[in-house]
Structure formats: C-alpha cells, structure tokens
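Troubleshooting log. The previous run stalled partway through. Resubmitting the same two chains, unchanged.
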Amino acid sequence: MRAATQERQGHGIRWEIVSPALLLIVWQALAMLYPGRLFPTPIAVAQQMWTFSASGRLPLDMAKTLTRAAIAFFISMGIGSIIGVAMGRNRILDRLFSAWVIVGLNMPAIVIAIVLYIWLGLTEFALILAVVVNKVPLVITTIREGVRSFSADYDELGRAFRFPLLRRLRLIFWPQLVPYVLAAARTGLSLVWKIVLVFEVLGSDGGVGFRISELFQFFDIKGILAYTAAFILVVLVFEYGVLRPLERSVLKWRMDRA
Amino acid sequence: MANGPRVTLDIALKRFPRLPVPLIEGLALEIAPSSVVALVGPSGVGKSSLLRLVAGIDTDFTGSILVDGLPAATAPPAGFVFQDSRLLPWLTARDNIRAVRPAITAAEATALLRQVDLETYADAFPRQLSGGMQRRVALARALAVNPDLLLLDEPFVSLDRALVTDLQRVFLSLFDRQHPTVLLVTHWPEDAAILADRAILLDGRPLRIVGDFQLEGKRGERSRAHIEQMTALISEHRTEATR
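Second attempt completed without errors. Output:
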C-alpha cells in the first residue's frame, strides 16, 4: 500500500520536473521560429541574467523586492488571520465588516498605491502598506471560510472529553485551519509578488519592478525577461523548497490514503 | 479491577428552543454501578440527547444527573463513543488516544489499542482504517478517558453484521474485564439482548420510559435461542407501547 503510494508520488514529481523543461523547449522553439531582438531565446536571457548577477545589480534589486514582499506578506498574513478568525467565529463582527472586506477585495490595487503614495509620499512604508491593504482582504476571506467550515462534531468531541482551551486550539481548531492558511499563503504570495513589482514601477528607489521599468525605457526585452526569469526562479524555489514540503508535512494525514 | 459509578438521572425538563414540546419531562432513572444498561428506542426519539446530558456536554436542562453523587458536568468525563467514530483524522490511532489524555505514554496508548486488537495499527491514520477498526480505536480512546463509565451512542450503526459481531465480542470482553458502568444507546433490541444486563425502552415526546427489563443470564454466555427470545420480548413490548 505504502509502496504504491510512493510510486504514485514518484511519478507526480517526475512530471513536475518535466513541466518547466517543456516550457523552456517551447520558448526556445518559438524564439528560433521568430528570431529577433524583441523575442530572445531562453539561452540569451540566461546569459543576460548571469551578466546582471555578476555585476551585483540583480541580487541587490532582488533582495530589495524580496524584503518588501516578505514584510508585506507576514504582516498581512498576521492581520488577515486574526480578523478572519474573529469574523468566522463572531456573526455580528462578520455582518458589520463584511462590506469592508468586499470593498477591499474589489478596490483596484493601483488606486490604493496611488492614494497611499499621495498621502505618505514615495516611501518604503507607503509601498509596504499598499501591499498589505491589498492582500489583507484576501487572507480574511480565506481564513473566515476556514473557520466557518470547522466541524461542530469535533467541537462536541472537545467538550465531551473536556479539552482545555489550549489543547482544543492545538488539536481541533488549528489542524482544521491549516489547509486554509496554506491556501491563503499561496494565493497571497502570488499576489504580493505581483503587486510589489507594480508598486515599485510606480514609485521606488530600486527593486525588480523599478529596474524593469528602467529597462522598459530602452525596450530592453532581454533585460526585462532576465529579471522576470530570476524572480520566477525565486518563486519556484520558494514553492518547491518551502511551501510544498511544508504542505506535505502538515497535511500528511490527507495524502496517506488507504 | 475497575468499578463503575452509580448514575442517577432526575430530569425535570429538557427542551430545545423553538420546539413546542419538551424533549424530556420528568424522567427518573437509576443505573446501578458496573451494570450495562441499554437505552432502546426508535431513531430520533432523543436517546443520543439523553446521553449527551449524562456526558455533561449539554448542561441546559432542569433537574439533576449525578455520577457517584457528583453533577455530571463536574464529574470525571465519561468515556464517550460517538455514533460516527469521530477520530481526529490528522492524528494517528495512538495519538487520538493520547489527545484525550496526554498524561498517558505512547506505550500505554498502544496497550489500550491491544485491548481492542489494534496494536499493529497504532501508527495508522483514521483514513487508513476500516469503519469497524475506527470504532475500536474510538472505544480505546473512551477507555483512556474513563474506563469506569462508558457511554456508547449507537456504536454499531452503519456497520455490516460481521463487523457488528466482531465489535460486540470486543465490548463483551472489555465489560467482563473492567466492570464499567455502561449506557448503551441503540435502536436494535438484539444489541441489548446480547450486551446488556438491563434494557430500558424509551419512546414518545416528551421522552418517557415505556419498558424496563432485567435481562436474564450472564451477558456473553447467553445462547442464541435465549438472545432471540429476549429480542422478541423487547420488540413486542416496543410495538405494544407505540400502539
């Protein structure tokens, strides 16, 4: 039973490795079919990436963007989770603030950034705050759904066996919330990456977005793709190096099916 | 050898909001220590609700439920076996047992699993166990909480006959070894005839006792014919009472 499961997982991992390679092959083929300055091959982009890295520019910009994204991500996960749990547990709070959440979800990201830049100036704080304001409603919605879906049966189990609050939180509530936290983290991260870049284009003193906007002035598509590819590489490393192993570890009980 | 507590029920009124008729009104019952009492009645009559009052899960009623003289809600928690096994799916069989009583060691939890013939499945997650196995883990968990007072809420529901027979064997052996006080909720008179010392027939709204039988013979040693005879007696009485 376990051998069969491992074999299935092995197959899955092999396909996941094949997937990006396939994308590169398609890209290379298309670039060879339509050669030109505005459609560089992946090899040319990789060379450009190496040049930027060697000059120290790319790592510096990447570090700036990643720091902004990480700060915004953790702040929004924290605030969003607290509010999401409160709204999921308390019907009055939920009714009182659900319109705010809807407004937050549908407010164009660019508007939030512009307004905050006008109010607070082109500062680091304004940029991070703009990302947080954009991301928090999404976290709230996901976590609130998670809390709403808590099983009343497990709640009753906790009461029948007189679980103290901490044990109830650790053994009953938290495991039910984990899939939603992971979902919020994953969708949130993809949103944060994108928004940080857009806001950096709009106004910042460095970072991937800022550099891409600079390269855009010169129609340097190779440079733009080099930065984008480097950024995507980081995202993939985070996905496969952190998120997936974490998911496999905390949701093991779901995967090991008979 | 464990000795089960005496359970005394004297429920003046239990009603659910928005329902015009109370669920229970003026129900009194005395459960002798270390006896196995089956509460038999049709589905939806309120047997499980009554069990939740005894477990102290639901305290919204007037009257008293005493476990060895202590109010049920403050007495040591009972070993409750729910209709569904209600194991925490993210914990292994062993950890499900330790979850309800963290003081017990892994070895002690495994020993409890041994009592229900599941020692080799200690590291399995609930999804990897069959329905019958899950019920047995739930029983081991109940024993970890309180081996002296077991509340079994339709423990055989949605199991096939072979699994029921197997689980009944496990119950009988446990009752024999540990001498707990057991309240078994079931809608099958046969479960009572096989497992219990006493069968109480419940029916109506408000819930009332329509029959109270001391079942002859030692449980576990009753012949098939004897069990069938007692099953027929309980069923007959139930039919008459509902007429």
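Takeaways: Chain A has eleven helices and no strands. The two ends of chain A are 7 Å apart (CA to CA).
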